[in-house]
Amino acid sequence: MSTNNNISTTNILQYRNSDSQLQDDWICTEEPLEFRLPFLTATGDIEYKTLAITMRTPGQDFELARGFLYSEGIINSAEDISSFQYCKDRGEAGQRNSLEIQLTKPVPINSQSLDRRFTTYSSCGLCGKTSIQSLELQNPPTMDDQAGLIEPGLLKQLSATMLKQQPMFQQTGSAHASGLFDLSGNLVGLFEDIGRHNALDKLIGHFLQENPEQMKQSVLLVSGRASFELVQKTIMAGIPMLVSAGAPSSLAVVTAKRFNLTLIGFLRSSGFNVYHAPWRLKE
User: Fold this and answer.
1) How far is CA 258 from CA 118, 138, 253, in A?
2) Contact, 15 vs 23, CB < 8 A?
3) Which of 12, 40, 205, 239 is in Cβ range 3.0-4.6 Å of 67 for a Cys bridge?
4) What's this model's pTM, rounded to 2 decimal places?
5) Residues 6 or more apart from 96 whose CB is under 8 A from it?
6) Rounded to the nearest 10 degrees, how much is the dihedral formed by the CA atoms of 238, 240, 244, 250?
7) What is d(CA 25, CA 46) in angstroms, rounded to the nearest whole number?
8) Sheet holding 262-268, edge to edge
9) Which of the following is catalytic: 28, 87, 124, 127?
10) What CATH number did the domain enclosing 92 receive?
11) In-domain check, residue 10
């Protein structure tokens, strides 16, 4: 197998009808990325410790880290990060897959709210109420009540527009995407990754640095289903509308209602389903 950053090649035996043949195939690269943050100890010292490890497609690692920390409520703006540095002293793996993030203010090592943020997802077996309470602790921005943001007909065109800008998916068939559209239906940013949550973190991290206000007047389109995690990140970014190609989960719907997010699923060229706040669509 050979690897070129975000896309790898491998030998496969391909069966078609009654024939088979050996050939090369493209696949998405998947590698771990470790986030290491400065923690303030009880004695006043600063120690770098692992906050989280995510399986991602290499590329836009700084955007990924910035978006992850913001959507989890650990930083409040891009200015809370002073620098990024790969851990070269940890060998070849560290140079690619271990990222040291210098914050302007270290994280208290005994932060209970930090513990809650990483143990209260619905996928961990805890109840939806606890997951929503964890999101409330992060003080997400209040969604604007402005109505009639976008024409329904424009939404039906977004999938085709995004698909044309997904080179990793077109080559491998296994990359998720998150695309941000302005209210005229123009694609203003798109990121791909083998993980749907990573693709969204990369997008949020990019706009947090370049143009945070853009997210408040935009529509987010994600490939696949709309999970609680994607709804949480959308809310934290202040994006008023989340559209997915697949279905939302029950907790995603409950969370959208709690935080006034327009949630749309099953987007097709023929139509879509609105699960909450249809008034953001023009009549």
Assistant:
1) 21, 14, 9
2) no
3) 205
4) 0.91
5) 31, 58, 86
6) 90
7) 46
8) 187-193, 176-182, 218-222, 241-244, 262-268, 271-276
9) 124
10) 3.10.20.10
11) no
Task: Let me know if 28 is a catalytic residue.
Answer: no
Give one DSSP letter per residue of 187-199, joined into a string.
EEEEEEESSHHHH
Q: How far is CA 253 from CA 82, 219, 232, 249, 257, in A?
A: 36, 17, 11, 6, 6
Q: How far apart are CA 258 and CA 261, in angstroms?
A: 8
Same domain, 273 and 177: yes
In a domain, 13, yes or no: no
Residue 10 tokens read as 């491998």
- Hey, CA dihedral for 224, 228, 231, 232, is it positive or negative? negative
Place of tokens 């060998």: 91
**pLDDT, tens only, 227-276:** 999 999 999 999 999 999 999 999 999 999 999 999 999 999 999 999 99
For 29-91, where are the E strands, in sequence order? 31-40, 46-56, 81-86
CA angle, 209 then 215 then 217, to 5° = 145
